[in-house]
């Protein structure tokens, strides 16, 4: 048996777990309401999450799951945004077998989303089973993708399709304006690099973090956050009734400084929960655009 987690979009991690638009973390920002006009910037950090199996259905064939996800984000609006991400999971099937899957991605998004470079590799039991590499650039009337792996190919996507950081900016801007629904098409080079996903994002009511001192995420205590759920759809995968069902959904707490906690990845027939194990904040580079 080979269980490979469905290719979780780079924007899901490269955006929702760090490269998100946040609010400056000073006292004035902490006191600001969701609809207030406040300064905004991305917060560089390294977050580590322990991943565990949640609810599962019999057809999933999964008896157990343990894993760790590491997300490292750096950069700013002046220099662009770099992401290094790794998601390692060990699955146990209902027949007693096991498998280790290792998803590794790196990406760089230029300021103002002028281009987006990506490299993704998936290993199963230490063997490379999938690699995707390419660059997407903004053109006059469309965005052009130049793929190098898994094969050399050029394609065009719509000019309104968002890159990962663009997508997160739209979510955080909506949250700050007390808007609770965002729809967008996104591209992040997932799978073979040829697919654009439709997304719908539901943003809940703002809350305030209460992490305990001395525990992972303690620096989030007192910060505002929003419960967010993002559903990903493959426009080419309608069922027999013509209904479009989500490929998967991701739920999490998105804090005003761009950090996420309490992760829930719902693949339909099984769920993975992510709990923050450690959080390191990096020194922020100077950028007048933040």
From TrEMBL:
<dbReference type="InterPro" id="IPR015000">
    <property type="entry name" value="EipB-like"/>
</dbReference>
<protein>
    <submittedName>
        <fullName>Cell envelope integrity EipB family protein</fullName>
    </submittedName>
</protein>
<keyword id="KW-0732">Signal</keyword>
<dbReference type="Pfam" id="PF08904">
    <property type="entry name" value="EipB_like"/>
</dbReference>
<feature type="signal peptide">
    <location>
        <begin position="1"/>
        <end position="31"/>
    </location>
</feature>
């Amino acid at each position: 048996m080979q269980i490979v987690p469905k290719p979780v979009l780079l924007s899901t991690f490269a955006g929702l777990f760090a490269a998100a638009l946040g609010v400056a973390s000073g006292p004035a920002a902490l006191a600001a309401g969701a609809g207030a006009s406040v300064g905004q910037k991305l917060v560089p950090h390294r977050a580590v999450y322990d991943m565990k199996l949640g609810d599962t259905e019999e057809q999933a064939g999964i008896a157990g799951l343990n894993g760790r996800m590491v997300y490292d984000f750096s950069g700013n609006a002046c220099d662009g945004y770099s992401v290094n991400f790794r998601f390692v999971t060990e699955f146990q099937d209902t027949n007693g077998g096991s498998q280790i899957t290792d998803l590794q991605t790196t990406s760089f998004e230029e300021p103002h989303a002028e281009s987006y470079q990506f490299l993704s590799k998936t290993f199963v039991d230490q063997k490379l089973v999938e690699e995707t590499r390419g660059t997407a650039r903004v053109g006059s009337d469309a965005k052009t993708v130049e793929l190098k792996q898994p094969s050399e190919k050029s394609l065009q996507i719509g000019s309104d399709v968002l890159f990962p950081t663009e997508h997160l900016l739209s979510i955080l801007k909506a949250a700050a304006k007390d808007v609770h629904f965002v729809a967008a098409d996104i591209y992040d080079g997932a799978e073979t690099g040829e697919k654009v996903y439709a997304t719908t994002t539901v943003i809940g009511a703002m809350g305030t973090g209460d992490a305990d001192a001395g525990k992972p995420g303690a620096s989030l205590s007192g910060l505002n956050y929003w419960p967010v759920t993002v559903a990903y759809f493959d426009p080419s995968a309608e069922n027999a009734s013509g209904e479009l069902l989500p490929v998967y959904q991701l739920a999490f707490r998105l804090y005003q400084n761009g950090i996420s906690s309490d992760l829930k990845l719902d693949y339909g027939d099984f769920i993975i929960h992510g709990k923050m194990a450690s959080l390191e904040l990096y020194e922020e580079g100077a950028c007048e655009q933040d």
